[in-house]
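Lab notebook page, bench 4
Experiment: in silico fold of construct C2
Operator: M.H.
Input chain length: 74 residues
Purpose: comparison with the prior construct
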Amino acid sequence: MPNDVTPAQLRAHAEEKVRPLGQRRIRLLAELEEIEAELRPVVREAVRAEVSQRKLSAMTALSTTTIAKWSRGD
């Protein structure tokens, strides 16, 4: 950008760059919430079937702490 750019123009340019990435992130987080809602009971069932928390963690990228919480019904 040229040196004679106003602060308002700099802000507008920055917002233009951030906006699509932010919107994409928001969509992905919403999709992740949906997936986790489906995954929670499946993980609970897998724990009851004695699938190890470590294996579940490797398969799902969930922390073992999250898996333990979910298996307790938290």
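Observations: The chain has a mean pLDDT of 95. The chain has three helices and no strands.
Next step: discuss at group meeting.
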